[in-house]
Amino acid sequence: MKLTTDQLDALKELVNIGVGQAAAMLNEMIEFRIQLHIPVIKFLSPQLLQQELVERLGAQQISAVELDFSGSFKGTAELFFPTESAATLVAILTGEEVGSAELDSLKIGTLTEVGNIVINGVMGSISNVLEQALRYEVPNYVEDKIDHLVFLKNLDESTTILLAQARFEVEELQIQGDIVLFFNVGSFNALLSAIEAVG
After folding, report:
1. pLDDT higher than 60, residue 82
2. Staple 19 to which of 55, 80, 89, 166, CB 3.0 to 4.6 Å?
3. Inside any domain, residue 105
4. Which of 134, 157, 150, 7 is CA-nearest to residue 75?
5. To 10 degrees, what angle do helices 188-198 and 5-30 make?
């Protein structure tokens, strides 16, 4: 699927608005300046998607919060953290020391909440700007290597995925994370139509 320059620019702007809003909410929680990087927008097969994520996030175990959405568009939003970044972020938010047993028990709940805030900030902005209603499932926390993540295994090889990927970093804390949106291509035309309607 080919997009025009205008369509790509509109998609990037839309994701930027959402990521900016999510970063502002996260910034209030950790009181450090968050740097945003321009999102990557591209179409990929599941196999190429996996390669792309491994190159970007590494082959080591990562922490991820995933949230399925449906309505005018259907897909999955993911927030990925390298394991060290996840531990540092939880320590900052809970006041516990990295490596403590208490931190480990708080990690899943804390990262799920962060993921919920960030993903809802992104998707909420997109649905508001485009004036489209979306429904969200309960966020799910997983820890695994990229190539073992269930959502990747469940993708049909014939499926084309729109990858909208933005990175945020907190330089002082050496925290980084990736926000990745997967839109089912069947609903992607509806997304483009909505963008053009407000454009």
Report:
1. yes
2. 166
3. no
4. 134
5. 90
